[in-house]
Amino acid sequence: xxxxxxxxxxxxxxxxxxxxxxxxxxxxxxxxxxxxxxxxxxxxxxxxxxxxxxxxxxxxxxxxxxxxxxxxxxxxxxxxxxxxxxxxxxxxxxxxxxxxxxxxxxxxxxxxxxxxxxxxxxxxxxxxxxxxxxxxxxxxxxxxxxxxxxxxxxxxxxxxxxxxxxxxxxxxxxxxxxxxxxxxxxxxxxxxxxxxxxxxxxxxxxxxxxxxxxxxxxx
Length: 219
Description:
Elements: E1 6-9, E2 17-22, H1 35-39, E3 47-52, E4 56-59, E5 65-68, H2 84-103, E6 111-116, H3 118-128, E7 136-140, E8 161-166, H4 174-186, E9 191-196, H5 204-217
Parallel strand pairs: 2-3, 2-6, 6-7, 7-8, 8-9
Antiparallel strand pairs: 1-3, 4-5
Helix pairs in contact: 2-3
């Protein structure tokens, strides 16, 4: 399986941690790169940011229109029916990026997986099933698509999880974020859950909270 093409942002000194950040439906790896300076992370953290590009595939809910996506979405109800096989395949591609970071000298427990919207659903699957402990899982304006079928790996039973969601989100309702939080707590995970008065986006307070959380889990 070939590696996904990625946009990478290197720190000023040799990287000692990595954040692999997955974009949402119809976007690409450039989507969240501009946020890095806004995080105002201390230079000594030396974090490499990796923004993979999803392949372009037909999306059923958009009339079969081809666009960058981690998996097909077939229905937009509250449970949001998705192509689980494609989602799991995307999670496996993310796993290869984790392996590459390890090959480049970053310990697995210094790697954070993050995802926005569709990318967050893949991040849930990839992080919670990973066979080595990761530094953290950050899921933004997203949903836990595989919450009823996932088989978690005990290696990440203690993984710190950060969920952020907008209360006015018209694309992925805040109820989806709450359902993910509830399911994770049922499964025994510790979750830091935050809501913001925003739509399907990010906001300054959220960015500040993300920065604080990253500094905590990568300290």
